[in-house]
Amino acid sequence: MLQRIVTESRKSPRYSFRCPAQMKEPAGENECVLRNLSLLGCYVETHDPRPIGSTIDLIIWIGEGKIRVGGKVRFADLGSGMGVEFTHLGPAALFCLKTLIHESLL
């Protein structure tokens, strides 16, 4: 279940959320955990965050399905994770995120 996280400066509300994800890279896929989800981005827990400004591809596992999004690293916490802004969110992925957030508010 998602819970809204109250912050003053966000363009889109964030929701407390955890699910498995993968960072897709040329060398392979790295397992990570996605949390603090919004329609514009998320926080990715990983022991190997990418440098600020890096572009990444994420595969997000939601229930039995998965969605794929592209993003840009906006901040990094060495050894713990990174904040990612979604830059490539297709219509199906956007619909899935909107549905997930909407259903959690019911």
What is the gist of this entry?
The protein has a single domain (3-105), classed as Thrombin, subunit H (Beta Barrel), CATH 2.40.10.220. It has one helix and seven strands.
Chain-averaged pLDDT: 85
CATH first level: Mainly Beta
CATH architecture classification: Beta Barrel
> Helix-strand pattern, N to C?
EEEEEEEH
- Termini separation comes to 10 Å
Describe, in plain words, how this protein is organized in 3D:
There is one protein chain. With 106 residues, this protein is mainly beta. It has one domain: predicted glycosyltransferase like domains (Thrombin, subunit H), CATH 2.40.10. The protein is built from one helix and seven strands; from the N terminus they run βββββββα. Strands 2-3-4-7-6-5 form a six-stranded antiparallel beta barrel. A hairpin with an 8-residue loop joins strand 1 and strand 2. It starts with a strand and ends with a helix.
Layout of secondary structure:
Blueprint: E1 3-5, E2 14-25, E3 28-37, E4 41-45, E5 55-62, E6 65-77, E7 81-88, H1 91-105
Antiparallel strand pairs: 1-2, 2-3, 2-5, 3-4, 4-7, 5-6, 6-7
List keywords for this structure.
mainly beta, Thrombin, subunit H, single chain
